[in-house]
Design goal:
Structural class of chain A: alpha/beta
CATH topology of the largest domain in chain A: Rossmann fold
CATH superfamily of the largest domain in chain A: NAD(P)-binding Rossmann-like Domain
Largest sheet of chain A: 7 strands, parallel
Number of strands of chain A: 16
Radius of gyration of chain A: 19 Å
CATH class of the largest domain in chain A: Alpha Beta
Number of helices of chain A: 14
Helix content of chain A: 40-55%
CATH architecture of the largest domain in chain A: 3-Layer(aba) Sandwich
Shape of chain A: globular
Distance between the termini of chain A: 43 Å
Oligomer: homodimer
Order of helices and strands of chain A: EHEEEHEHEHHEEHEEHEEHHEEHHEHEHH
Chain lengths: 336, 336
């Protein structure tokens, strides 16, 4: 089968690609071709696999060509991140809404030309949730919590969820939307997401650098490793429609953890000197955005698909260290 | 002030226009100009008022020009109806989603050029609600019920609600979305809406013709007169942001009534011979759509704005008869 991953050059997309290549099959069908569409090229290790094809450029400009292409499966991960969407409204609308619609319309055109509906997994986000003054905001959100997004990013993700549901209802695609919790620990540099510090306060201290904490220690948030998210996206893809139940988005499991617990775990795994590299420096913009995010998730639908959150934040840190060393055995050598 | 009503040639839009002209003011400001944008021309009686300007044509083609125009208030009612959207997916997406976005972007351009955010009331619909197999579907829906639309029309309305909320959050507009219940009794001919029969089973028998009932007598649904909807749209416009509370859509009041109660009211108002003109002829397509609609509404937010449902279905029928006779004193003469 031929699989398209939009955002396939990004952190989650590249990890998903690596996992799919290692499995060799999806839903029981051998993977012949893996197309990674992104504005950036995928990691060299992925490109070295003869099954991989990279398409570098804006997704919006690539969708027309998809109307004539036999793609058996789509993981639609491409997205401008929350901070970018707040700073540049038009960028968010174009990257997140117009691109998704162009992709869905390309798949619809294929279905209307006689192809079977393409199975599509869309990565949404718990950013669809937020406090609305008209209603109480549950601290822990579930799949059936009323989404009242408080960011353009969350609004765009929610709109795309509903497009996916309606295109699925009409039989144009076989779509499923999965809301990801905040992925941590992300490697590399901070990105434009308001949630970037959730990785920074672990990643930078582990690397011997200062990590900036822009919010209070009492902030609680659902998080998970990239591996849990990839497991979730694949499970959602492989689920039968009956097992997925309905067409509404599901939330992937997350570990509901406070910043204080994150730092305690950092100390437990890497020692007090590493924790001491975290410096509190409140950022009102980020604190304001994060104050509107859920403090945790309950995920019965995902659990019914066999998915689980990470067992502890210490496990999350250890998995990050192991990932770094898998890529480079000399990484984080100072940790012993 | 200058007011734009999109869909201003339609049933609700023209009635809203008539009401605004009769009031002469909106939110305390005198009305100098009333622009009615629609694909059809407004009724001649409206055009005779020197304050009225008709713009006939697709809304989508009119939005660019709005970028340079001083409009103080917008009632955005233009919409393809539910039956049309199910039959022609692209028509619905264009008429309901693309047009709304083009309108909002025109208003955003004005705000970004220095104008105050334009106040916008968007007419949404209780079609945003529907049963999803993943969750119990409450028979009576409220403002905080999770919307899982089961039609393209409902999906498009819900998406527009979220666009309105986000454009408002960003300060581009001062938007409010109000979900209308099914308007009955509509005059004239049946339209493409799946709900059209709710008017037909009253209007046709009153006019001496056969009325076709395509669903069971036990179907219950929230309905209201056009006057209640117009009252609601104006109240939502005139509400302060504090009184509206938040940015989520509110549901306008409706009378929760069964088809059996509607026909009993018809008999009470017009006699058994009129009721006998209703003929049951089940239409599986319509019955299937209606089965996915709410059986009633609770509307605490609208009631906090002073809005009320019609007191009884008999009142609804009597108001319809009075409306017909206001337009034409000889109308429905056979009723005595």
């Amino acid at each position: 089968m031929k699989i398209l991953i939009t955002g396939g050059g990004g952190f989650v997309g590249a990890r998903l690609a690596r996992q799919l290549l290692a499995r060799g099959q999806l839903a029981g069908r051998p993977i012949q071709r893996l197309v990674l569409a992104d504005q950036v090229a995928p990691p060299a290790a992925l490109l070295a696999d003869p099954r991989v094809e990279a398409r570098v450029g804006k997704l919006l400009t690539q969708c027309d060509a998809l109307r004539g292409e036999d793609v058996d499966a789509v993981f639609h991960l491409a997205s401008a991140v929350s901070g970018e969407c707040e700073a540049d409204f038009e960028l968010g609308m174009s990257s997140n809404l117009d691109s998704t619609r162009a992709l869905l319309d390309a798949l619809r055109a294929r279905q209307q030309a006689g192809a079977a509906p393409t199975r599509v997994v869309f990565s949404s986000s718990i950013a669809v949730f937020g406090p609305d003054p008209a209603y109480p905001f549950p601290p822990i959100v579930g799949d059936d919590t009323l989404p009242t997004p408080q960011t353009s990013y969350g609004t765009q993700k929610l709109i795309c969820e509903h497009l996916i549901a309606d295109y699925t209802r009409k039989g144009f695609i076989d779509g499923r939307a999965a809301r990801l919790v905040t992925v941590t620990v992300r490697p590399g540099r901070p990105n434009g997401a308001a949630s970037s510090f959730f990785s920074g306060i672990i990643r930078e201290p582990l690397a011997g650098q200062e990590g900036i904490l822009p919010v209070d220690l009492d902030v609680q948030h659902p998080v998970g490793t990239v591996q849990r998210m990839v497991d979730g996206l694949i499970a959602v893809f492989e689920a039968s429609r009956e097992a997925f139940v309905g067409r509404s988005a599901i939330t992937l499991p997350g570990l509901n953890v406070t910043v204080r617990e994150m730092l305690d775990a950092l100390e437990a795994v890497a020692g007090p000197a590493v924790r001491a590299r975290v410096r509190a420096q409140r950022d009102e913009r980020i604190a304001g955005i994060v104050a509107n995010w859920p403090r945790g998730v309950v995920t019965p639908r995902a659990q019914a698909l066999g998915l689980k959150a990470d067992a502890s934040f210490e496990d999350i840190i250890r998995e990050y260290i192991a990932d770094c060393r898998a890529d480079n055995p000399a990484a984080l050598a100072g940790l012993g």
